[in-house]
Specification:
binds heme C, alpha+beta, Chalcone isomerase, six-stranded antiparallel sheet, 309 residues, 15% strand, single chain
């Protein structure tokens, strides 16, 4: 009797194993003009949409198992076709507004992110609060978008002046590293949400870092590399919905083999919210950083394995 069940079961297993070798390719073309948006807005989109709507698809191991992988590859291909945040600056300002408006509608209707995806990636769920943040951002865009260029220039000038003003009073870490506000516009090279359940993190790289990733020169990372890691509280409700809570801190690692010789070529700094207070009583705080990063010495003391382009 048992044999009759065993043979079909075996056949299914063999087919599933064979399927693992027939794979459509999901590669990440270069990011040419990533979406520039306030950090909170961007974090939501990166977490919930970037796997299918950017060139920074980050497939987890469980996405790569067939036959799921077929569906995933198809979602990524189709998703990028309709909306790709990695080519965002190719869109005219009005089209950006239009796309965002469409995105928010899709979200409100519950059509996006795709249900089968959020079922497995619970971090990609978008809460009511997240939606409010996105709507707020869109509303701001509609107001701020002047339609003649002289007004755009005037606005640019004003923003630059404001940025310069802010730079003057930037906090400084005890080892002399100043806070780098620009990291928010850098490219996201990874997100980490599975390490523990307390916080959600986004890891950004400056231009040198992004180039190094592209050219596979990240062990060691070249001088001039800056990695930034920002962390938010993770709020999980009783239904398992996850949202981004308060912004906690941002950390930097700056590569300079000469300057930071004593800490393996990396300059460390951490700034804690709400006032971006520099971390550490004196410059020795970096021993704490490097000690914890030491297990990664074969990876140039870096934990992150960047999403490959
Ligand atoms: C698992 C992959 C996946 C995720 C995650 C995902 N999408 Fe999509 N998205 C798709 C696919 C596939 C399509 C095209 C087919 C369709 O319309 O159903 C699409 C289409 C869209 C479109 C229509 C684009 C057009 O003009 O054709 C919008 C807008 C959109 N998604 C927004 C979002 C937003 C916003 C998020 C994040 C909150 C998101 N999506 C997350 C896969 C995804
Ligand atoms: C308790 C261990 C621990 C300590 C202490 C620590 N880190 Fe990390 N750090 C990690 C882990 C683990 C990651 C990987 C990303 C993640 O999961 O958050 C990381 C990632 C980073 C990254 C992103 C690049 C990478 O390596 O992946 C930066 C930047 C960073 N840390 C800066 C710092 C600074 C600055 C300090 C000291 C003020 C510090 N870290 C102290 C464990 C630590």
């Amino acid at each position: 009797m048992k044999k009759y069940f065993l043979i079909p079961a075996l056949a299914v297993t063999i087919i599933l194993i064979c399927l693992q070798f027939i794979r459509p390719k999901v590669d990440n073309p270069p990011v040419t003009g990533d979406l520039q948006a306030p950090e909170q807005v961007k974090a939501i989109l990166v977490r919930a949409c970037y796997d299918c709507h950017s060139n920074q698809t980050n497939l987890r191991w469980y996405d790569k198992i067939q036959p799921v992988y077929w569906q995933v590859a198809n979602h990524v291909r189709e998703g990028r076709k309709g909306l790709n945040f990695s080519n965002w600056d190719k869109l005219a300002p009005a089209d950006r507004k239009g796309k965002l408006w469409e995105a928010i509608n899709q979200l409100e209707e519950g059509a996006m992110p795709i249900k089968s995806y959020t079922f497995v990636h619970s971090n990609a769920k978008v809460s009511k609060q997240d939606l409010a943040v996105l709507k707020n951002y869109l509303a701001g865009m509609v107001h701020d978008m002047p339609n003649d260029t002289s007004k755009i220039h005037a606005l640019d000038k004003q923003l630059q002046a404001k940025a310069a003003q802010e730079r003057q009073k930037l906090p400084e870490s005890p080892n002399g590293i100043t806070y780098l506000p620009d990291y928010k516009s850098w490219q996201v090279i990874s997100t980490s949400d599975r390490f523990d359940n307390e916080t959600m993190r986004v890891i950004y790289g400056n231009e040198i870092a992004v180039k190094a990733v592209k050219e596979h020169h990240i062990n060691p990372w070249p001088n001039g590399t800056i990695l930034a890691k920002s962390a938010w509280d993770k709020i999980e409700d009783t239904n398992g919905n996850v949202t981004t809570g308060a912004f906690k801190q941002v950390e930097f690692m700056i590569k300079d083999n000469e300057k930071y010789k004593s800490t393996k070529g990396w300059g460390f700094a951490r700034f804690k919210t709400p006032k971006l207070t520099p971390y550490g009583k004196d410059a020795m705080f970096t021993t704490e950083c490097i000690n914890c990063h030491k297990p990664m010495h074969e990876n140039d003391f870096v934990f992150t394995f960047p999403i490959k382009n």
